[in-house]
Design goal:
The chain has 450 residues and is of the alpha/beta class. The strands form three sheets. Strands 1, 7, 8, 9, 10, 11, 14, 15 and 16 form a nine-stranded mixed beta sheet that branches. Strands 2, 3, 4, 5, 6, 17, 18 and 19 form an eight-stranded mixed beta sheet that branches. A two-stranded parallel sheet has the order 12-13. Helices cover 28% and strands 22% of the residues. It binds zinc ion (2 copies). One zinc ion binds next to loops.
Length: 450
């Protein structure tokens, strides 16, 4: 089974439209200038200078002058809370949030209720996604039964049922022997093993980053050591077994160093980083707003700048949101009792553009490239704005500012750490797998209404 077949979404109407005069920026093809993009039957049919192409028959023209067209973003780490916790999110709302954020594909984590640790659970989920998901979704299955860390799942059967890879995300695989066995099975069945790195003995009952702020607030802290020692251990395991592992949501400078050493040795590792870790620090926790409580926690300024530098250099391969919806009643409790997690699909690009591109810390083309690089890590085709490719792209107004959450969210939950912040860079249109997955009200050449 090819990896592309491990993406599931509902069949939509193939797009027929002309995107006129958008500034096309595709770092992989080197395109960085205004173009018309002609989309026929859901595919990019032609690119031409502004004003050179005509709308397809029965198609419409989207006036995109002043807007940017980027390859669609791909998020390798989201929690869609289905099955079992649909009051937080479901396949429809989660993929609507993804589309609104410019994503043309997402990869969902298996820590649902029940856990995706069995082929029948996975099949039910892929069936549901084939009916409900507005953007393609890939599913990771659990490494261990019920995420308990001891008994391995039937990885080969899960791969046959469509699993894109494996993770116990939400939890680490604490037992090195168990992970080693999983990496040996990976050799037989393929698929990336993705790792949430944390040593529970070091995290204890910590609720935020261990540092000056946690000491001041009197809140138990999670040391960076909890993550970085596990990154180093698992890189060693991957090297020994010649396995392919992916480190999820790296948060600190010591993990970046461990990653660098592993890559220097030629070990097959990759890593992701989240917009919140790239833009916020533990200083935000002074507000005691539980929107700033996530795992791994917001770290110190030195960690944040190391993550930005690692993303810039490509040492960290891609951006992932770790979109983790929780209901209001769950989050509106004292900080220490609140569940960990922030939503992020609808704000990822704007947060990075506003907080890192505009101040000059990261180039726009780097952000655009890293926002879809997660696809390749899982063996999926990376979206390109190139004739012949399926239409996977987003149209973004880089001048538009918006107050996060003021108009609500497409997600079913609103625990967004950027809530109430003015961000710049608004997604206006998203095409995913050749269909219009999201469209904001915008200027369009429609028949005049008299
Ligand atoms: Zn995690
Ligand atoms: Zn996660």
């Amino acid at each position: 089974m090819s990896e592309t077949k491990r993406l599931f979404h509902r069949a939509g109407e193939p797009a027929e439209l002309l995107i006129a005069g958008a500034h096309v920026l595709d770092p992989r093809t080197g395109l960085d200038e205004p173009h018309d993009i002609l989309i026929k039957n859901g595919h990019i049919a032609e690119l031409g200078g502004p004003g050179s192409l005509e709308a397809p028959q029965d198609g419409e023209t989207v006036d995109a002058e002043g807007m940017h067209a980027f390859p669609g973003f791909v998020d390798p780490h989201v929690h869609l809370r289905t099955p079992g916790q649909e009051y937080k999110e479901n396949l429809e709302t989660g993929t609507a949030a993804a589309a609104a954020g410019g994503f043309c594909a997402v990869i969902a984590m298996p820590n649902t209720d029940p856990v995706v640790d069995d082929a029948s659970v996975l099949r039910a989920l892929t069936d549901a996604a084939s009916r409900q998901a507005s953007v393609p979704v890939g599913f990771l299955a659990a490494v261990t039964r019920n995420l308990k860390g001891d008994e391995l799942t039937e990885m080969a059967k899960l791969r046959d049922a469509g699993a894109l890879g494996f993770t116990d995300d939400g939890k680490p695989v604490v037992n090195a022997g168990t992970l080693r066995k999983a990496l040996q099975y990976q050799r037989l069945c393929g698929g990336v093993v993705a790792l949430h790195e944390e040593d529970p003995a070091l995290s204890g009952d910590g609720a935020m980053h261990e540092g000056a702020v946690s000491a001041r607030l009197g809140i138990a802290g999670i040391p960076t050591l909890s993550e970085s020692t596990m990154v180093a251990r698992d890189a060693a395991l991957a090297g020994y077994e010649d396995a392919r592992v992916h480190f999820q949501h790296l948060s600190c400078v010591e993990s970046v160093e461990a990653l660098e050493q592993a890559k220097a040795k030629g070990i097959r590792v990759s890593a992701e980083v989240c917009p919140h870790h790239l833009t916020l620090t533990d200083d935000m926790v002074r507000t005691l707003d539980s929107r700033f409580k996530m795992n791994p926690p917001l770290r110190a300024a030195r960690d944040r700048s190391a993550l930005v530098a690692a993303l810039r250099s490509g040492l960290i391969d891609c951006v992932a949101t770790d979109h983790a919806p929780h209901a209001i009643h769950e989050k509106e409790v004292p900080f220490e009792e609140a569940p960990m997690g922030t939503t992020g699909l609808e704000t990822a690009f704007a947060a990075l553009f506003t907080e890192l591109v505009l101040p000059g810390d990261l180039d726009l083309e780097i952000v655009v490239e890293r926002m879809s690089a997660g696809a390749a890590l899982y063996g999926l085709p990376v979206p390109k704005i190139e004739p012949g490719c399926p239409a996977n792209l987003c149209l973004v107004d880089l001048d538009a500012r918006f107050d996060v959450g003021a108009d609500g969210y497409f997600s079913r939950s609103e625990n967004c750490c950027f809530h109430g912040r003015m961000l710049q860079g608004k997604v206006r249109l998203t095409l995913a797998a050749g269909t219009v997955a999201f469209r904001e009200r915008m200027r369009a050449h429609a028949p005049a209404v008299s």
